[in-house]
Amino acid sequence: MKSTSTDSCGDLSDVEHLLSSEWKPYYICDKTNSFQIPHFIKDDFHAFISIPDKHSTLSQLIAIENKLKQTEKAQYLPLSFMPIAIKDNINTNNYRTTSATNALTDFTPKYNAKIVENLIKAGAVIYGKTNLHEMALGITTCNVYVDTVTKNTIYPPYGCCINAMDGSKSCGGSSGGSAAAVAANYVPVAIGTDTAGSVRIPAAMHNIIGFMPTQHRYPINGVFPLSHSSDKVGVLSKHISFIIDIDDALIPNTIINENDFDLNNVRSGVQKKYFLDDVHPNILDSFHLTLHKISMENKVTLIQGNDECFENVRSFIHGHNTPHSAIIGM
């Protein structure tokens, strides 16, 4: 994490002993021995719409400390002090929620989204709000417009999110800011939303893990809606262990026994044409290796997709001059 001036940092020496070593770097803003909270992140990638706020973070840390003193059992707060960035289409009452649209620039909800409330109850620290494609309707997280009258290019105040791995590449979307924040090590975990790829696409663009759960596993109350039948809250991180920790905290008492799953009767469709046309050879090799593994070791039956069907869809899109984003809202 990058930080600058140490003016007016809040001293948290009373909380320091409670933090694990993996969380401490997110709350240090200088090179002294004192334990303090950062109040500015040099966000080189426009990953955030609202950077982590010093006072909000401080109050959250103190609240977690008080809860731990009351319970005296850390297991009641399984995510104690974990800093988590939240996509800016998810309501938070300590940060504005803009959905990256000018219409909501000054909107600060009165209540947290249910997913945010559950994270706080588990001991997490809400650590800023991340950039996204406007209203989560796109896969670039770059909100640029052309004035139809003047033909001038208009850049909204939130800026285009930059790929934290390679600035010449797209960061993906619509949860591009969440992915960039994780890839840049601003946060260990970020929350995104996924309707048709909005967690998985930016995760792939940044070589991190994007977990999209099944429908209704996590609540979507307080999330800016696109499709109630498809909207999902997802988790992005470099480490699968963090994602498991969050899932365990949000869905307690979930016991998964691999012996309960019989894959012998599972059939999986494989659509190679169109999806694999421009894939890098290394990724293609990994793809085929994985297919071989699940078919041989797990006895999954692979069914080749219908190329003609996809050709018809592609011809329809191009024939009607319809952008892909209009067919699939991200």
Provide an overview of this structure:
The protein has 330 residues and is of the alpha/beta class. It folds into two domains: 13-254, Amidase signature (AS) enzymes; 260-327, no CATH class. It has helices at residues 13-16, 54-71, 114-121, 176-183, 200-205, 240-250, 281-296, 307-319, 324-327; strands at residues 48-50, 83-87, 125-130, 145-146, 153-154, 189-194, 209-211, 232-237, 267-270, 301-304. The strands form three sheets. The protein has a six-stranded mixed beta sheet, with helices on both faces. A two-stranded antiparallel ribbon has the order 4-5. Strands 9-10 form a two-stranded parallel ribbon. The longest helix has 18 residues, at 54-71. The model is unreliable at 1-9 and 322-330 (pLDDT under 50).
List keywords for this structure.
2 domains; 9 helices; single chain; disordered N terminus; Amidase signature (AS) enzymes; alpha/beta; two-stranded antiparallel ribbon; 330 residues; six-stranded mixed β-sheet
Structurally, how many domains make up the residues? Answer: 2
Helix-and-strand structural type: alpha/beta
Range of strand content? 5-15%
What is the mean predicted local confidence, pLDDT?
Answer: 83
CATH homologous superfamily assignment of the largest domain: Amidase signature (AS) domain
Shape category = globular
CATH architecture of the largest domain: Alpha-Beta Complex
How are helices and strands ordered from N to C?
Answer: HEHEHEEEHEHEEHEHEHH
Care to count the β-strands? 10
Q: Evaluate the radius of gyration.
A: 22 Å
Biggest β-sheet, characterized? 6 strands, mixed
